[in-house]
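Example record

The entry below shows one chain as it appears in the dataset: sequence first, then structure tokens.
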Amino acid sequence: MPLLYLPLLAASLLTVDGQQFRDLNHNGRLDPYEDWRLSPAERTRDLMARMTLEEKAGTMIHGTVPLATGGKQLDGAAAAALIGKKHLNTLITRQSGDAAALAAANNTLQASAERTRLGIPVTVSTDPRNQFQHTVGQSVAAGSFSAWPDPLGMAAINDPALTARFGDIVRQEYLAVGIRQALSPQADLATDPRWSRVAGTFGEDAAIAGRQVQAYIQGVQNGADGVRAGSVVAVVKHWAGYGAAKDGWDSHNPYGKHMTFPSANFAYHLKPFDGAFAAKVGAVMPTYSMPDGEVTVEGVTLERVGGAFNQPLIDGLLRRNRGFDGVVLSDWAVTSDCAEDCAEGIPKGANPFAYFAKWGTPWGVEQLSPRARMVKAVRAGVDQFGGTEASELLVEAVNAGELGVEDLNRAASRILLQKFQQGLFEAPFVDEQQAAARVNTPAAQQQALDAQRRSLVLLQNKDRILPLAGGKRVYLHGVDAKVAQRYGMRVVDAPELADVAIMRVAAPSQMLHPNYIFGAMTHEGSLEFGDDNADYAAIKRIAAKVPTIVTIYLDRPAVLTNIVDKAAAVVANFGVSDIALLDVLTGRSAPQGKLPIELPSSDAAAAAQRSDLPHDSVKPLFPFGHGLSY
């Protein structure tokens, strides 16, 4: 394996048999773990034999890239301390700067890693970056990256070959800036329409979701053979049942900690993960949620604790029943306390970002100490802990006899093996000068734009108002006038002067628990457009004066009962640019998408449906699979 892009190195290069190798431990000789001619398994065994207990514990921690004030630049000194003193070698980046800044940050992290005793490179991970919707702790703004429809939109297209290309573009863009692990895809099923994380799923149908999950992972991991050279490790989430959210609440929050299966349909929520295993996914993230009652499937009864602590869920259903031997990465802050500000709410009007240090998700094991939670999770089958930097707790657990060294060996080996399989030890650095040119290329832009067009779902088209003919006088709400003018539209400044109005609105939501740390950022509550909704007020005002086309961004299903009687045409979108939208509205492209979720007729219907069943609300306004065309 030739050494790839290498700037000035702290690790010197060794030449053996005419080949070059990196002297990672600075001892002047070629050791087996430095020898890329050996298998990843051989190299892992050699490296593990050289590691201290503290270094193994650090490998089992998935920390966060520290950012300086403002959140745009790496805090190099803090990062060096995590890598050099805490022995962490996996870090999530939430940096939202441009590609060159991300590439520079990666190289700084890798330079710090080179200066450590064994020179173990850092795996940089990220939440999804290539979609329109973003929520802190769940995804990152696209920024420099190509912008595709949300996964829900990819399900509306339902073309696995396209999703595989999308995954491959994600892979290429991540590698360009040094990101080696994708905390995606979501294989969760959106079976409760009120849930706040619907947009990140591939909908509510297990067969569609499974095919999409498989295709995405094959793209991200560079083929169907598992983690290998050129792979970005995919972390499929959240094993399992997260979408069966009790009352629609999300389990980032203490009031939403439960998943529920009133129809005993837990097995259905396992099916999309079969696509991940068929693609030989590298890692699995367990759900935060805990069952609200007895759940038994495949002869296994789940424990009533969160997924990371649930031995029947991980060691039983995942490891034994499915033979999964990759990395199990916990979701964030599962070992942290959910103390007063987390459990009871922060002061009214306070900034929730200032309280993240007090946020925890130890559902079902709140009575245990953080160390005891780590012990229980490792025994359940967790290899790595997200959202903490407390590697010392694992060391203390071994010294106290609560865990064996073999437990840490097993977990750390799985993590290090994937670094070797990827070739990360040979090529941890990236070319900062080329990063921007390799992200959001013209070809990627065009494919993303085409996906945006194809994902649009035409829900209603009264009197065939669409496609729009040229030369129309249009009134715009949320659409760029300059873009509209490129389509021959004459933009007017009052609806009564227009032939037609085009409006962008978002699915309704409320922050019903704004004093909770994550509740303040969660789209929850009613799916109906109420009189207090600004978008609805605008629709009523404008549609009363001119035929109106409404496109609604569905990050959750919306109740459109009082929209369809006012709008001439209704188009569902899952993240779309003005260009892609107007291409479809003017007929340059025809709408192709089909609803991957049903749209209920009312809040009452949404509440009456069962959280664990797909498309089961009574008389939905728009059923699953609905979609018109021209």
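Notes for this example: The chain has a mean pLDDT of 93. The chain has two domains: 58-438, 444-608.
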